[in-house]
Write a structure and sequence with these properties.
0% strand; mainly alpha; 6 helices
Length: 147
């Protein structure tokens, strides 16, 4: 690599994203091993900020993908081609959705076969579930997480 390309790489946004990712993994690993009470208190703040960020991403990605599909289909002039592309797009979307669902089920079953849940621990977890917690989970499923 020439000197200018090397300098351009070290000042690029991609380089900073990779460095931040590595730094986050290192700090997370160190924080997990540390037993500091101030760290435990700040974990809730960081976790809620991360959850807000993930919910914001979810809320923007789905409308963007939908609008991209609609814009792409509408921009085609030929009506017959538009119909064929629309049907093909919906079929690909459906196949990918079913494929992702099947993969998630099979991966979950495979992971449970590799690392089975201890029946005693499972009963202990279920014993701690109260009707109030079930209502809370149901309410959380109906909201977008940004109350």
């Amino acid at each position: 690599m020439s000197q200018s390309r090397l300098a351009a790489f070290f000042t690029s946004l991609s380089f900073f994203v990779i460095v931040a990712l590595i730094a986050g993994v290192v700090v997370g690993a160190l924080a997990q091993g540390a037993d500091a009470p101030w760290l435990t208190g700040s974990l809730g703040v960081v976790e809620s900020l991360g959850q807000v960020w993930l919910n914001a991403l979810r809320m923007t990605v789905i409308p963007l993908v939908f609008s991209l599909l609609v814009t792409g289909i509408v921009s085609i002039a030929d009506a017959a081609a538009t119909g064929r592309i629309a049907v093909r797009s919906l079929m690909v979307f459906g196949v990918l959705l079913v494929g992702a669902t099947v993969y998630a089920i099979l991966a979950g079953m495979g992971l449970l076969a590799i690392w089975p849940i201890d029946p005693e621990a499972g009963r202990g977890l279920l014993a701690g579930v109260t009707p109030d917690s079930l209502a809370t989970v149901g309410e959380a499923a109906r909201t977008d997480g940004l109350r």
